[in-house]
Amino acid sequence: MAEFLFFLLSALCVGGVLGLILSRNAAYAALWVVLSFAALGALFGLLDGPFIAVVQIIIYAGAVMVLFLFVVMMIPLRPSAPSPKRKVFVAASLLLTACLAALIFLSLSASRGTSAAPAAPGFGGVRGIGRLLFTDLLYPFEITSLVIMAALVGALILAKKRKSP
Amino acid sequence: MIPASWFLALSGVLFALGVLAFLIKKDLLLMFLAVEVMLNAANLAFVAFARRHGLLEGQAAVFFIITVAAAEAAVGLAIILLVFRRKKTVKADEISVLKG
Amino acid sequence: MKEAFWMIPLFPAVGALGLLVFGSRLRRGAVSFLGCLTVLASFLLSLASFLGLSATAAAGGGPRIKVLFDWLDAGRLSAGLSFQFDALTAVMALVVTGVSFVIHVYSVGYMKGDRSYARYFGLLNLFVFSMLLLVMASNMIVLFIGWEGVGLCSYLLIGFWFEKPAAAAAGKKAFLINRIGDAAFLVGILFLVLFVGGTEFRLIERAALNGELGAGAATLIGLLLFAGACGKSAQLPLYVWLPDAMEGPTPVSALIHAATMVTAGVYMVARLNPLYSLSPAALETVAVVGAATAVFAATMACVQNDIKRVLAYSTISQLGYMFIGCGVGAYAAGIFHLFTHAFFKSLLFLSAGSVMHALSGELDIRRMGGLRRHLPLTYAAFLTGTIAISGVPFFSGFFSKDAILTKAFASGRHVVWALGLLAAVMTAFYMFRLLLRVFHGQERLEPSAKARLHESPPVMTVPLLILAFCSAAGGYLSLPVVFGKGLDRFPRYLESVILPGAEAHLSRGTEWLLIATSTAVALVGIVLAFLFYGRRTVVPETLIRTFPRLYRLVADKYYIDELYGAVIVNPLLRGSEAVYRDFDVRVIDGAVNGAARLTARAGKGLNVLQTGRVRDYALALLVGVLIVVGFLVL
User: Fold this and answer.
1) pLDDT tens digits along C318-345
2) Is residue C498 a contact partner of residue C271, using CB atoms and an 8 Å limit?
3) Cβ A96–C619 below 8 Å, yes or no?
4) Cα distance between residue C169 and residue C174, in whole Å
5) Interface B:C, Cβ pairs < 8 A
């Protein structure tokens, strides 16, 4: 059952990214990515991380991707004509990416192991994560809030329309 | 139980696809999306390792990555918007002022 | 106040700095005031130090040395910026500052109306500073700084009117020829470091007296240093720059090329007398070169028609005399001649300047004559100088020249003595020829010059009178022994510096005879001059007609300049040109330009990679990541 779920979610995930690569329309591409990220959230759930799974779906698939979609709507994206030179570029990209994938799998083959012991009850729950975040990782957590604040102000200032450009 | 290495393999595939998408997409916006895909591939690897070793720190790292990615997306999208306002395009190949 | 002597060079240095930097903004009066005042201050301080030295001389003790700071310390070579004040330095400092001050004052009148008034006085001050550095140095390194400094100043001052091509060329010539000597001089200093282990004069003296320095090493060093002195003091074969140096302003000729700078070589030899005394060969060379130069230059002076050039050749000849003195071991006599010569030669030059001033720059004695009536003061001054230099008894030149000749005879070098006598005849002859041609006889002036004929202003004539007094009376500081015991104050004063050698003593009769000979010789020269140029110039014209080739040879300065040109300068020029054409332009410039072109090409080639497209960069980045990860994984 779990294996079936894994393969289904994996297929959705990879399919979403392939959709990003193959679709001509930017809005569709963004929606494909939403699908992919949602599936990824489900995969997190499969890995005993319910809190992270929820955060992934709410923040990534929800907030961030909606932001992307907004911008996609604001900017008229027209498809450009493919040039012959680009074909060489695409071929080179494919080749190099294949090499990268090969390297990644080579390095993973060293860490192939048997399945781990079942997780302790409550692993990855809000309680565990919350305790960790507010004890050991308190400072990074607080600093993150500052980062978000800075990003908020920066984005506002950048995107604001200026009176005299 | 599914072995963690399966998840790791999936993470590798996602990362490679993200790289490919970054390379062959022409719009800044979609290239930015490809970067997000790569980030999520890394997240998956984090969670998989956390599961394998039974440590919550991996999931906490993902939490931080997601929050920072959200901030980064906000700023990045603002910049893209600004570029569009200036250049009237977001095609990466058409923005080549720094040409030698 | 006892240690204040090291400040003597400071005043002219400050003056030079001030005048050269801010001079163009000062008024002329301020410039003259500053220029003269600094030298006067130096002179007064020298006088005070001299008196202080005399007071303490009785108490004994070595020279006073003031080390300002350690300047060089590299391996065996170490030198401090240190000054030394002893009897020899005192004499030289007094001569330099005294004569310089008089010439400064004279320049106020002579250079009036020149455009670069402040530059002139600045350079003059700089020259005095360099010369003081030279005579007050306590080691060869500092001496060399002063040595080069006076060379530089002479270059700048000879070429003072650099708009005139001849002046610029003369400056260049003086500088280059001095360079040749200086190169040998520098090598000599290095050998000194090698053999003695230092360049402090005390050290050299100790090494020479202890026998640490062999005769061979002393000969080598002595000859090399003497080569430098030949350049600076215009001896054979490096004398050619001095006559050309007359292109500079006349006070400069008086200051640099008569009174002070050219005496640097003589001073150096006298200063290093312990070293030279070790090496008979070096001394012999010095004496022979001196004697040869004295005669050689005198012959040329006899036929020149340019008033300043006659004086220039006479300077070379007199410098030869000083070297005769040093070469026969009578350093004190050499310095004494330097001392008296400084007075009468600057007097002669300044009088000549006064004549030129009166005649609007006329230099040719064929267009002068009969000026006695128009320029009485100048005439008196010139006459005094002429009598002094000719060696007429009871004037300064007589005593100093006689001292040298007596010592030369006493040392047994009769050839040198005879050459000295010959030079003395010619000296008297050409000096009186000059006097007669300029001040006596018919007026052969250009009408335009005659209209503006005038005696010089007091600011110029008063210095003349001062110098005339010194020229007449300077000799009484050192009378021959036969005139009485204890009258040779000058050599005895220098005894603390110049070690008394084993002097051959002459009998009274011989000495009287030598004095009579000197006197007779001077008189012969004067009489000859009167015979030749007194009323009519029949004799010289006949002589020229009889020996036209000889005359041309001498009048054209033995074609030495042409010889140097053909043998040294032209091949060098042509060789340099060839090197420039074939090596410099092709190889050096080619390499430089080639490197630049290579860089430009490479840049243009690599430029293609910088497309400005982010995705290309991303691809390159990926390649880099692959390489790094591949390296880590595989």
Assistant:
1) 999 899 988 888 888 888 899 899 998 9
2) no
3) yes
4) 9
5) 31
CA angle A57, A58, A62 (to 5 degrees): 90
Does any CB of chain B come closer than 8 Å to the CB of residue C622?
A: yes
pTM of the model: 0.68
In a domain, B79, yes or no: yes
- Chain C nearest C-alpha distance from A44 (Å): 27
Residue tagged 């090291």 (tokens): C6
- Pick from B27, B40, B72: CB nearest A40: B40
The CATH number of the domain holding residue B13 is 1.10.287.3510
Residue C430 has pLDDT above 60, yes or no: yes
Residue B94 lies in a domain: no
* Number of domains chain B contains: 1
ipTM: 0.89
Q: Which residue from A92, A96, A107 is facing C633, i.e. has the nearest CB?
A: A107
Q: Do B19 and C611 touch (CB under 8 A)?
A: no
Q: Tell me which residue range forms the domain holding B44.
A: 4-89
> Cβ contacts of residue C355 below 8 Å, gap of 6+?
C307, C362, C368, C371, C375, C378, C382, C438
Q: Per residue in A113-148, pLDDT tens?
A: 655 666 677 777 888 888 888 998 999 999 999 999
Residue C294 C-beta-side C-alpha neighbours within 13 Å: 31
- Decide if B91 touches A, using CB distance below 8 A: yes
**Distance (Å, rounded) from C-alpha C613 to C-alpha C215?**
82
**Of residues C616, C622, C634, nearest to A96 (C-beta):** C622
